[in-house]
Each structure stands twice: as structure tokens, then as C-alpha cells.
Amino acid sequence: MIYACWYQKWISNTDMEAKDLAINGGPAVSGKLIGYGHQSINEDDAESVMRILKGDFLTCGPATDQFEEDLKLVTGARYVTAVANGTAALHVACLAAGIEPGDEVIVSSITFAASANCVRYCGGIPVFADIDPQTWNIDPESISKKITDRTKAVIAVDFGGVPVNADEIESICEENGLIFIEDAAHSIGSSVQGRPVGALADITTFSFHPVKTITTGEGGAVATNDPDLARRVELFAKHGITRDPSLMERDPHGGWYYEQLELGYNYRISDIQAALGSSQLKRLPEFRARRQGIVRQYDEAFACIPEISCQLDEMPDETTRHLYCLRFDVDALGVTRRFIFDALRAEGIGVNVHYLPVYRLPYYEHLGYAQDECPEANDYYEEAVTLPLHCCMSDEDVGRVIEAVEKVVMACREQAA
Ligand SMILES: *Cc1c(COP(=O)(O)O)cnc(C)c1O
Fold it and tell me: What residues pair up with 241 in beta bridges, in sequence order?
């Protein structure tokens, strides 16, 4: 183990706002600090928002319809509903899938809490599946093992933007009569053998939070090819209310008439956000290329460090990476992950950790979830560090991150020797 005094020297430099880094991704690059995630907004993005502010519709207008059309093109999905955020998208996906109290839904264990919370909103029971130790995505074998008579759906996260094994999950779901929901909060712009994320699962959800690949400030979307699921998504996202006479139970009383058919929510996105989304989608190819370039530089640099493992991605040219996470072999380095994290922060690298296994969050622990539910996920958590990855980084910034990682690894080796 590292001597305490040496440790102190590293962390005494730390002067950054942990809260900002965790929630907003931190500054793009400010002074000596490189944030882990950051939006890229250009003049065209700003102008598209201004046009809406000066126009007739701030919500429920043509910009929202346009954003949904643009998302259909990018995702290849027949139906898209844009919503208020990625969490609302997941909630609506669960409602559309008919998740009810007591239903079990198998969820990735290494993900943001929202992937499981959406099941709880419906009174359902998230059942956590373990991850594959190389791709860090949900392990299809673990899904199979956790299926019971009460299982209704699977929510699989494309961790870091690397798509899950959709074919295998799809066939497990088909065999067992389950609905396959893909949480694609990380993976807009990724594809699998030319098939874009968005039409691989029964329902796909997106998030457009500022740290994600494209942003609308807050925002999300639900995509599906199934007309029946699409109708339910639309209904639950908009108060459960319809103005479509073909869906009504009674004859319309007149032009004002609408019916509420379900207990839905107001999960609408505004036209202000949607216009920003359409503008950002035009830049997706640019974002994808830049993110792939940074990932390539990182992968090459870290391939020569035996104490580091990178996320396995068999089709990197098809991936639009949202997060760049690493695993440090903390036993070989003779330190804890916390040490590596603090040392990198002291070097001005706004590192983060994605994620604590969801069943280990106190809310889930209090519900009675075993804290050793998924051994691979627990092992991953002890070693994981997320490096900065966003389109405001210059090649020089990428070089600084690599140098800092090398410096910390070298220092650990010297201490361990
Ligand atoms: C960001 C994220 C969400 C939630 O999206 P919001 O837009 O912040 O509500 C859901 N799932 C995953 C995996 C995410 O990373």
C-alpha cells in the first residue's frame, strides 16, 4: 500500500468542485482542469433556439414534430416520441410495456439509477443482471438465469455507447415472451452491422442531457417499430389523453372534444429544446468522428499498460462512445481505485466513476437487495475510472490525460517495487 504522506502530496492539489463534475461534467477545459463530459454548442445551435423564441410555438409546435422526424432518420425507427428527459423516456417505455405492481424486470447492474427507478415507478421489481467482464454490458447468460414466471421485460444499457448484444437478448426475450427495452442514453449514433441503435429492441430510449453525445439541455426520446407500443408511448407521455377519434371510446361531441384513456403524465419536450436537438443531430457525424478519434488515441496509449484494461468494443468504427472508462488492476498497482481517482484529479483530470452497481445504492439496499448480487459488477466497480471524453477536447488535452494516467501508473509501480 502507498504511504500516507505520498498520497497527501497528490490530493493537496485538488481544488475542483466535485459536485459540478458529477452532475454537469464540469467545465470543458478551464485552466488546468479537463471536465469528463461537456456539450458542444455552436452558432447554428444558438440560432435555431433563437428562431423558436421569436416564433409562435414554444411547445407542441412544428419544431417538436421535426425533431421526431430527424430522430427517425438517425435511428431507423418507424415511431419516435420526444419527451422531457431520458428518465421520462424510460418510465413511459415501462408503462407502454405494461409493467405493473409485482412484475419483475431484468436490468443492467452497471448503469445510472434511472434504468431501474423506472421499474419502481410502475410498482415493478428490478432484478439486477451481472455484466460481461470484458464489454461491461449486461451478460445475456445472467439474464437467462434471472428469468422467473413474473419476469415481464429486460432493460439493457448500451454502456458507454457500446451496443449490447441485441440479437442474443432479443432471442432470449422472444423465447420467454418478454419485452426488450434498450436504454440507449449513451449510444445515439452507434450501430450494429449497419443497423442503428433505435430499431434493435422492442423499445429504445434516449437521453439528451448535456453530458450525453447530443443535447437539448434536458430531453429524451422513445423509439419503436411497433405501432401498438408507439400508441401507448404517445398516450402515457401526454396525460393519457387522445384527440384521435379512431382511438376514442365515444363519438366526439365536437371539435373541442378529447378523451383521457389512461393515467398519463406531462412528459412533453418544448419546441425550444427540440430545435436545439435537430441542430445537434446535424452535427452527430462530426461528434461521432471526434469521439472515435479520442477513443482511438486512448486505446492505443493504454494498450501498452498491462495494469489497465479498456472496454472491449468489437466494432469501434460503428460506435459513438459516450463514456471512456478504464479498469485499473489495483492489486498489481498496490493501491485502491480511490487513490488513482484522487491522483488523476490532482493532475487536473476531471475523472469520474460510472457506476456504483445500482443495487448498492442505499434506496435499493433498504429494499433488501443483496450487496453481492452481481460479482462481476462489484469487481468492476472497485477498479473503474472514467476519463474525460467530449468534443471540446483538443488533441493536446487528450495528450495531457494520457500523460497523467501514465504518470500515476509509473508512480504506483515505483511505490509497489
Ligand atoms: C443519463 C442516463 C439516463 C437518464 O437520462 P436523463 O435525461 O438524465 O433523465 C438513463 N439511463 C442512463 C444509462 C443514463 O446514462
Answer: 260
Residue whose C-alpha cell reads 417499430 in the numeric block: 225
Residue 195, SS3 per DSSP: strand
Cβ neighbours of residue 172 closer than 8 Å, sequence gap 6 or more: 140, 143, 144, 147, 154, 178
**Rounded Cα–Cα distance for residues 284 and 189 (Å):** 7
Number of Cα atoms under 13 Å in the Cβ half of residue 184: 33
What is the mean pLDDT of the segment spanning 70-79? 98
pLDDT value, residue 1: 35
Sequence letter at residue 360: R
Instruction: Give the bridge partners for 157, in sequence order.
Output: 183
Quick one: average pLDDT of 223-250?
Answer: 97
Confidence grade of residue 333 (pLDDT, cut at 50, 70, 90): very high
In angstroms and rounded to an integer, the radius of gyration of the C-alpha atoms of the chain is: 22
Instruction: State which of 24, 36, 85, 87 you would mutate to test the pocket of ligand 1, scoring each by most atoms of that ligand within 8 A of its C-beta.
Output: 87
Look up the pTM and report it: 0.94
Band of residue 417 on the pLDDT scale cut at 50, 70, 90: confident
Contact 51, 275 (CB under 8 A): yes
What is the full DSSP assignment across 91-111?
Answer: HHHHHHTT--TT-EEEEESSS
What distance in Å separates the CA atoms of residue 134 and residue 365, rounded to the nearest whole number? 26
Q: Which of 6, 7, 35 is nearest to 21 (CA)?
A: 35
Q: Which residues line ligand 1 (CB under 6 A)?
A: 85-87, 111-112, 114-115, 157, 183, 185-186, 207, 209, 220
First to last CA, the chain: 11
- Which residue, among 65, 94, 101, 122, has the nearest Cα to 182 in the 3D structure? 94
Amino acid residing at 76: G
